[in-house]
Design goal:
heterodimer; A: Alpha-Beta Plaits; Single alpha-helices involved in coiled-coils or other helix-helix interfaces; 2 domains; four-stranded mixed beta sheet; three-stranded antiparallel beta sheet; about 15% strand; B: alpha/beta; Barwin-like endoglucanases; six-stranded mixed beta barrel; five-stranded parallel beta sheet; globular
Chain lengths: ~290, ~800
C-alpha cells in the first residue's frame, strides 16, 4: 500500500492544478465505538508523539479530561450517558478531526497553503502558512480546529501524516489496547466496518452502521456506531455539510473579497510610499506579550 | 489465591490471557477488566468479535467494562455470595449442571462426616469468643481402607452434591434479589446465560480481581464462583476457567516466591510455632491420596523443601541438622499488613522497612496508619517515588495534618529503580514468567532493589561476624555466590530459583545414564530430590532457566492450534503448562468434551495435545486418576473440607459496615451478621459506623487513567485525570441538591475527604429488603504528593478489617455519608 506519498491533492487559497500522475491509496482510520473502553491511551499516545502537553486541569464533574479539544489536545474522549432503547448505555467517542474528503476548513481558508489535503486523504494544517484568522473553525462542521493563544495559529489532528508517510500507523492506533482503532485503506476499513455492523446487528443493535457522512464527501476517519440512525447521541452532527457561508465565500464572495484584499494591499503600498511605515503603539506591545505568554 | 487452592489445588489463574478469546461467555464480576486491565481486556473484544462471545458484567457501578457488555446487572457491594449462591441453586434446580463432569471430576459423590453441620449461619465448631472455628468435623467420611467413602449414585443424603443442593436451596431468586438489590429478572437473565455453558461444547470464563478479594469474605466469594464453574464443567477447558486478574506487576511473582508472612517460595508454608519437628512438618504437608490411584503431588513436598534449604544454606544444610529446619522462623500467627500495623499502633514494633509499598495510601484507616508510623524509631523507604508514606510526618494541611515536632520517627529514603530500568522476570496473571530488558538508565543515585537489599545484608553479616549476637547462623551461612556480592544480577537470581544439580545425578529410569552433571541447571521440578543433591530456590519456577538457557526470554509466538496456546513464548509455571487441570478438557474416557477445543487427549498410550499435560503422561483413563493432581482427592472440591477459615460452603454474610440491621439469611442470629471467622481488632470494631450516621454504601476502585498512587507523579496521566472526584448516582444527587462539579464531603466513622462530585446515571439506587440503598463510588488515585492536583487519601475512609483467610482489607463495601462541602 503506497501510503508514502505526500502528493498534495488540494491546497487552500490556491488555484494551480494538483499533481495527478502518481496514484496512491486512500487511507482511513476506523473508530469502533462498540470496542472502545474510553481508556484514553490514544490521548496519551497523541501527546507523546506530537509533544503536546495540555494543562493539568480540574475535574468538571465528568470523566472527560481534558474537557475538549485545544491546541494541545488534538483528540479527546467524550462520554455520553444515554438510554437510546430504554436501556442505559455509556457511549464513549474519541473526538478529533474526521479528515473530510471535501474539507470545509480548506475551503474556508484564505491563506495559501495553510491547509492541504494529501492524495491519501489526510487533511493537514501547515502552521507556517496560517494567518490565524479562524475561518477554518467556521468552515468545519465538526468544530475541530483550535487557535493557539501562543502563536495564533490553528491546530488539529494530522492523522500522524508524518508517521503515515513512512509507512507507520498513527500513534493512537498503535496505542489502542482493544482494537477499537484500526487503520488501513479506506476500502479495507469499510469492509471491516461491514463485519462489525453485522456483529452488532446480531447483538440486537438493529440500526448499527458506519458514519461516513456524504455531506462532506465521506471522511477518512469513520465511526462504527451502535445507533447510526442517531449520531447525535454521540455528539456527532446528523447530516454534516459545509456551511452555506463557506460556499458563498468560495463562490461569489471570495473573488470580490480577494479583490478588496488586493486593493487594500495596493492602497497600503501607496500609503507606505507616501507616508512611511506604521509605528507600533508602545502601550499595546506589552499587552501582546502577556497574551503570548498566557 | 486462598480460594482457588482449596478448590482446585493451586492458587493461580487457571487459564491465561490469550485463551479468553476462546470463550463463549465472559462473566466479569468482582473486577473491571476494561478499566483496570485494558490490555488484557482485548481478549474479551477478540472473543466477542471472532467467537460470537457474549459479555456479562455484574457490578455495583455501570463500569467501562459494562459499556461493552451484552448484559449488565447492578448489585449491592458485598453481596456477591448471595448472587452466586443463587446461581448454584438455579443451576441445580433447573438441571443445568454438567453432571458427567461433576460426578467424575469433583467431590460430588464423596460422603461428609455426620458430625458436620450448618445452623443459623454457623458451621460446626464455632467459637464466638475467638471468632474462629474448630474445623475437625469439616471432613469426609473415611472407610476402613483410609479412603473417602463415596456414593456414585448420588443417593446418599450426606454426599457432597446433596449437601450442596440443600445448602443453596435457601438462595431463592426472590431472596437473592432482596439481598443484592439486583432486580429478580436481571438475576434470572444472568442465570439463564450462565446455564447455557453447562453444555460440553460451551465454555464460560470468569474474570475477577480486587472487586472480589477486597471483602471480609473475599476468598469465599471467589470460591463460590469456582463452584459455579465446576458445576458447569468449565475448568480445565480452553475458554473456561477462573481467571484471577493480577493487576500489580509483579504480584503473581510475589505470591509465587512466597513474600507473604506465612509462605515460603513455591507455596511451601512456614512452620507454625508448634511445629518444631522436621519429620512431622513434612508429614503434615505431604498429603496422602484420599482415593485410590490418585497422584496427590504434594507427596513430593520434601523434595521441594530440601532443595530450597540447599539453595539457601548450601553445605550448611545437612540431613543431620534436618536441612536447617530449626533456622526457619516459626509462626505464632500470621503477620499480614493489618497485623503489623496493629502491632505498630500498639507500640510493639519499632522499625519498618517498606520496599515498593506505600501503606499510608494503600491500606485502610489512614489516621490509624499515621499514628502507627509515628510510633516507629526508624522507617526505611525503598521506592522510585516520593511516596506519601515517606512524608507521613509532614504537614500538608487538610490532606495530611501532621505535627512534625511531635514525631520522632527517623525516615530513610533509598531511591530504587522502576521496572523499566532493570532486567528481570515478571510473572503475569497467566503464570507466564516473561524476561524483560532494561529500557533506560535509572536517574540520579537510584539503585536496583537487589543491590539495596544486598547492601543491607552484607553490612548486617559484617556486624554479626564482628560482634556475634543472638542466633547468627542463618545470616552467616546464607548462600551468597554472586560475581559482584553487593549487586546480585537478575540472571544469577533466576538461575538460582530454577535450581541445579549439586552432584552428578543418575537417571532414575536408567541408573547407568547420567541425567545431570554436577553444577548443571535442572530441567524441571521432576528432577528435584530430598537427599541434598539438588538445590532449587523455587520449585514451581524450575524449568525456567535450564541448560538450554533462559526460557523466559523466548519470544516464539507461533500458535499451531489457533487456540492461542503458544508454548514457545516465555515460560509458564508449572512445567510450561498453559491451561491448568487440562486433563479435565477431556471426558473420563480421555476424549475432548469439545473436539473444536482439544487441549490434550488420550491416544491409546499417552496423553498428547497442544499443551503440556497437567497429568501423568502415561496414566490411562481406565486407571481413574483425577485431573486435580495437587488435591489428595484427585478431584476438585465443592466441599472445601478444612481449607477455608469460615466453612466448607460459602455463605452470605453482610459486610462489617452494612446498611442492613441483620443478615437477611439469618435475621435472628447476630453472630452470623458478618463473617464469623474474620479477625477484628477491638479498637477497630469500635471504629465501625452504622447506617443511621452513615447511610450510603461506598466502594473504592481504580481508573484506567492512573495506576495506583504512582502515575499521579506523571504529567500525562495527571492531564488525563487531574483531580480527585467521587461518583454519586443521579437520584441521590437530586435528593441532596448536589450538581456535577460541586465539592462534596464524604465521611465515614474514620475520617472525611472532600472531592468533586461526578453525578451519574451509572450508579443506580437499589431496592434492598424494601429500602432504597444508594452507592457511592470512590476512586483512589490522589494524594498529597505528585503532579496531579493534591487530594485526600481515599483510604482515610476505609475500615481496618480483612478477609478471614488472607486479611485483604474490606475496601469494597463500607458505609459513608455525603454532603455538599
Amino acid at each position: 500500500m503506497a501510503l508514502q506519498s505526500l502528493d498534495i491533492k488540494a491546497r487552500s487559497a490556491t488555484t494551480t492544478a494538483s499533481p495527478s500522475v502518481r496514484q496512491t491509496t486512500q487511507v482511513a482510520k476506523l473508530i469502533d465505538i462498540s470496542k472502545c473502553i474510553g481508556c484514553k491511551a490514544c490521548e496519551a499516545a497523541c501527546m507523546e508523539w506530537n509533544d503536546l502537553r495540555d494543562v493539568i486541569g480540574v475535574n468538571n464533574g465528568e470523566f472527560d479530561s481534558p474537557r475538549g479539544l485545544s491546541d494541545q489536545s488534538w483528540t479527546v474522549m467524550r462520554f455520553y450517558e444515554e438510554e437510546p432503547n430504554g436501556n442505559f448505555e455509556w457511549l464513549i467517542r474519541k473526538d478529533g478531526c474526521l479528515h473530510c474528503a471535501d474539507p470545509g476548513c480548506l475551503a474556508a481558508c484564505p491563506a495559501p497553503g495553510a491547509i492541504v489535503q494529501y492524495a491519501n486523504g489526510i487533511v493537514d494544517f501547515r502552521e507556517e502558512n496560517c494567518i490565524g484568522c479562524g475561518y477554518c473553525i467556521a468552515g468545519c462542521p465538526f468544530d475541530i480546529p483550535r487557535i493557539s493563544k501562543k502563536d495564533s495559529k490553528a491546530y488539529k489532528c494530522t492523522l500522524c501524516s508524518d508517521r503515515v508517510a513512512v509507512g507507520l500507523e498513527p500513534a493512537c492506533i498503535k496505542a489502542c489496547p482493544t482494537g477499537a482503532l484500526m487503520f488501513g485503506s479506506k476500502e479495507d476499513m469499510v469492509d471491516h466496518a461491514d463485519e462489525r455492523v453485522a456483529d452488532l446487528n446480531d447483538r440486537g443493535f438493529e440500526n448499527a452502521g458506519l458514519y461516513d457522512p456524504a455531506g462532506v464527501g465521506g471522511t477518512h476517519v469513520m465511526y462504527v456506531l451502535q445507533h447510526a440512525d442517531r449520531p447525535q447521541l454521540y455528539g456527532l452532527p446528523i447530516d454534516p455539510n459545509i456551511s452555506p457561508l463557506v460556499s458563498l465565500w468560495k463562490g461569489v464572495t471570495k473573488p470580490i473579497a480577494m479583490l478588496i484584499l488586493g486593493l487594500t494591499a495596493f492602497g497600503s503600498f501607496f500609503h507606505y510610499i507616501r507616508v512611511g511605515p506604521n509605528e507600533i503603539d508602545e502601550i499595546d506591545e506589552p499587552e501582546d506579550e502577556n497574551e503570548a505568554a498566557s | 489465591m486462598a480460594s482457588l487452592a482449596p478448590t482446585f489445588g493451586r492458587g493461580a489463574m487457571t487459564n491465561h490471557w490469550v485463551d479468553i478469546k476462546n470463550s463463549d461467555l465472559v462473566l466479569i464480576m468482582g473486577g473491571n477488566a476494561a478499566e483496570a486491565h485494558p490490555c488484557g481486556f482485548k481478549w474479551v473484544t477478540e472473543a466477542k468479535a471472532h467467537n460470537k462471545a457474549r459479555l456479562i458484567v455484574v457490578d455495583p457501578r455501570f463500569t467501562r467494562s459494562a459499556a461493552l457488555a451484552d448484559f449488565y446487572a447492578p448489585i449491592r457491594a458485598g453481596t456477591d455470595i448471595a448472587f452466586l449462591g443463587g446461581v448454584i441453586n438455579y443451576l441445580i434446580a433447573t438441571g443445568n449442571v454438567h453432571q458427567e463432569y461433576v460426578n467424575a471430576y469433583t467431590d460430588a459423590t464423596f460422603i461428609v462426616r455426620d458430625d458436620f453441620y450448618f445452623r443459623d449461619g454457623l458451621f460446626s465448631g464455632h467459637d464466638a469468643a475467638s471468632r474462629s472455628y474448630d474445623r475437625s468435623t469439616w471432613m469426609y467420611e473415611l472407610g476402613d481402607d483410609g479412603y473417602v467413602r463415596t456414593d456414585p449414585t448420588l443417593q446418599h443424603p450426606r454426599c457432597v452434591f446433596n449437601m450442596l443442593r440443600h445448602h443453596y436451596s435457601r438462595y431463592t431468586p426472590d431472596l437473592v434479589s432482596q439481598i443484592t438489590g439486583t432486580p429478580e429478572e436481571d438475576f434470572l437473565t444472568v442465570c439463564k446465560m450462565l446455564a447455557e455453558t453447562a453444555a460440553p461444547d460451551r465454555t464460560m470464563t470468569v474474570m475477577y480481581a480486587l472487586g472480589w478479594t477486597q471483602h471480609s469474605k473475599g476468598s469465599q466469594i471467589i470460591r463460590c464462583a469456582a463452584m459455579v464453574q465446576l458445576l458447569l464443567g468449565n475448568i480445565g477447558q480452553s475458554g473456561g476457567g477462573m481467571n484471577a486478574l493480577r493487576g500489580h506487576s509483579n504480584i503473581q511473582g510475589l505470591t509465587d516466591l512466597g513474600l507473604l508472612s506465612d509462605l515460603l517460595p513455591g507455596y511451601l508454608t512456614v512452620p507454625k510455632e508448634t511445629e518444631t519437628d522436621y519429620d512431622a512438618y513434612i508429614d503434615s504437608r505431604a498429603f496422602k491420596p484420599l482415593r485410590p490411584n490418585q497422584m496427590s503431588y504434594w507427596q513430593n513436598y520434601s523434595k521441594f523443601f530440601v532443595s530450597l534449604m540447599k539453595a539457601w544454606f548450601g553445605d550448611a544444610a545437612t540431613r543431620e541438622n534436618d536441612w536447617c529446619f530449626d533456622w526457619l522462623p516459626k509462626l505464632d500467627r500470621v503477620h499480614d499488613v493489618l497485623q503489623v500495623f496493629e502491632d505498630m499502633h500498639q507500640g510493639n514494633l519499632n522499625g519498618y522497612i517498606c520496599q515498593g509499598f506505600n501503606p499510608l495510601a494503600a491500606f485502610p484507616d489512614k489516621r490509624k496508619l499515621g499514628e502507627a508510623l509515628a510510633n516507629l524509631n526508624y522507617l526505611v523507604i525503598i521506592d522510585p517515588l516520593e511516596t506519601e508514606t515517606s512524608e507521613f510526618w509532614k504537614d500538608y494541611g487538610d490532606f495530611n495534618p501532621a505535627d512534625s515536632k511531635s514525631i520522632a520517627t527517623e525516615v530513610f529514603r533509598l531511591p530504587s529503580t522502576c521496572f523499566a530500568e532493570e532486567h528481570g522476570s515478571l510473572v503475569n496473571s497467566g503464570r507466564w514468567l516473561q524476561w524483560h530488558w532494561k529500557g533506560a538508565e535509572p536517574p540520579g543515585q537510584a539503585k536496583g532493589d537487589a543491590e539495596i537489599i544486598a547492601g543491607i545484608f552484607l553490612k548486617l553479616r559484617e556486624l554479626y561476624r564482628q560482634e556475634g549476637g543472638a542466633f547468627p547462623e542463618p545470616i552467616l551461612n546464607l548462600t551468597w555466590n554472586h560475581l559482584i556480592p553487593d549487586a546480585p544480577s537478575a540472571e544469577e537470581l533466576a538461575r538460582e530459583f530454577n535450581g541445579k544439580a549439586l552432584v552428578e545425578l543418575a537417571d532414575p529410569a536408567d541408573p547407568g545414564k547420567v541425567l545431570r552433571g554436577a553444577g548443571q541447571q535442572l530441567g524441571g521440578f521432576g528432577e528435584l530430590r530430598d537427599d541434598g543433591t539438588t538445590a532449587c530456590g523455587c520449585w514451581l519456577f524450575c524449568g525456567a532457566w535450564t541448560e538450554e538457557g533462559n526460557l523466559m526470554a523466548r519470544r516464539d509466538n507461533s500458535d499451531p492450534s489457533g487456540l492461542g496456546n503458544t508454548p514457545g513464548w516465555a515460560f509458564s509455571w508449572p512445567a510450561n503448562r498453559r491451561i491448568l487441570y487440562n486433563r479435565a478438557s477431556a471426558d473420563p474416557d480421555g476424549q475432548p468434551w469439545d473436539p473444536h477445543r482439544r487441549v490434550i487427549s488420550w491416544d491409546g498410550d499417552s496423553w498428547r495435545g497442544i499443551d503440556v499435560p497437567d497429568f501423568s503422561r502415561t496414566s490411562a483413563p481406565s486407571q481413574g486418576m483425577g485431573p486435580f493432581i495437587m488435591n489428595p482427592e484427585g478431584v476438585a472440591r465443592l466441599f472445601a473440607v478444612d481449607k477455608m477459615a469460615e466453612g466448607p460452603f460459602p455463605e452470605h454474610y453482610e459486610p462489617f459496615e452494612s446498611p442492613l440491621p441483620a443478615n437477611p439469611m439469618h435475621p435472628e442470629q447476630p453472630a452470623s451478621r458478618n463473617n464469623p471467622a474474620a479477625r477484628v481488632f477491638p479498637s477497630d470494631l469500635e471504629n465501625m459506623g452504622d447506617a443511621d450516621a452513615f447511610p450510603y454504601v461506598a466502594t473504592t476502585y481504580r481508573l484506567t487513567e492512573h495506576f495506583h498512587y504512582w502515575t499521579k507523579h506523571v504529567e500525562i496521566n495527571a492531564i488525563l485525570q487531574p483531580e480527585q472526584f467521587v461518583e454519586i448516582g443521579a437520584s441521590l444527587a437530586e435528593e441532596k441538591s448536589i450538581a456535577a462539579g460541586d465539592r462534596v464531603r464524604v465521611s465515614s466513622k474514620r475520617g472525611e475527604i472532600i472531592a468533586k462530585a461526578v453525578v451519574t446515571k451509572r450508579l443506580r439506587a437499589l431496592t434492598v429488603q424494601g429500602r432504597t440503598v444508594h452507592q457511592i463510588g470512590l476512586p483512589i488515585h490522589w494524594g498529597f504528593k505528585g503532579r496531579a492536583q493534591p487530594g485526600y487519601l481515599t483510604n482515610t475512609l476505609t475500615p481496618f478489617v480483612g478477609d478471614a483467610n488472607t486479611n485483604t482489607p474490606e475496601f469494597k463495601a463500607f458505609l459513608v455519608n455525603v454532603e455538599k462541602a
